[in-house]
Specification:
TATA-Binding Protein; alpha+beta; 13 helices; 5 strands; Endonuclease III, domain 1
């Protein structure tokens, strides 16, 4: 393997926990995890990312020297290497529900994404289905499109994929909006407003994307049944009330609860 770069970490990542969290949410055919190493396809080759030097850096390597713009930026974004969650984790550790999670997963932070469009598509497909079902549907989408770009999505035959027609239409509407100029990497308030105007982007979807894509520290999709269960709340309304104590770090609290599952 050829070492391409090293990204210094402001705080060590709980790498095994992150890999366990990320594994069921990987983009099929584009990402995988092997022997504790995150792998990302870049063209016809695979990039590898893993911690080195006792967890102080993330080393990026490949079987050949890849020349592709934005690789370091994408890796930096995915693993949020420039963020320091320690102050927020210390505050959340005062909560009896979150304290054991913080202790077990020091350094945890919300992951972002390698590609914003991929994350948005995966989030749409994951609405009201299991993680395993979402992975199957995502694989079918990639197989039909070849690549996840707006032109490819709009040109592909997405019939009989095993998804409701409205959800398929949401994929197409998003692709059309991005092709027409919607910036998925722009300021979150503008993107949130743009997504809210599209069918299929309700509060849960935008709340989840606010955490991972928008990097909104206090975003909290309280209707997520996984969060309700993990927090031991009776229902979403009770969870929302419980989460008041986690402000202004509810996005990190949600990540702790999801990872704890």
């Amino acid at each position: 393997m050829i070492a391409l770069a090293e990204l210094p970490l402001r705080q060590e990542l709980p790498w095994p926990v992150l890999m366990d969290y990320l594994r069921p949410r990987l983009i099929p055919l584009m990402e995988d995890i092997a022997n504790g190493t995150y792998r990302r396809r870049v063209g016809d080759h695979w990039l590898q990312i893993a911690p080195e030097r006792e967890g102080t850096v993330l080393r990026i390597s490949a079987t050949r020297r890849l020349v592709s713009s934005g690789l370091l930026e994408r890796a930096t974004r995915l693993f949020a290497v420039e963020e320091d969650p320690a102050p927020a984790l210390r505050r959340l550790a005062r909560d009896p529900v979150l304290k054991p999670l913080v202790k077990r997963m020091p350094g945890l932070r919300p992951l972002s994404c390698w590609d914003p469009l991929e994350l948005c598509l995966r989030t749409i497909i994951g609405q009201q289905v299991s993680v395993a079902a979402a992975n199957t549907l995502m694989r079918r989408l990639i197989e039909r499109c070849g690549e996840l770009t707006p032109p490819a999505l709009l040109a592909a035959d997405l019939a009989q994929m095993g998804m409701p027609g409205r959800r398929v239409e949401t994929l197409r509407v998003l692709a059309r909006a991005v092709q027409d100029g919607l910036r998925l990497d722009g300021p979150w308030d503008q993107l949130d407003a743009g997504l809210a105007a599209l069918p299929g982007f309700g509060p849960w979807t935008r709340g989840y994307l606010a955490i991972r894509l928008g990097r909104q520290a206090d975003a909290f999709p309280h209707t997520d049944l996984g969060l309700v269960r993990a927090a031991g709340a009776e229902n979403p309304a009770a969870l929302l009330l419980q989460a008041e104590a986690w402000r202004p770090h509810r996005g990190l609290a949600a990540t702790l609860l999801w990872a704890g599952l």
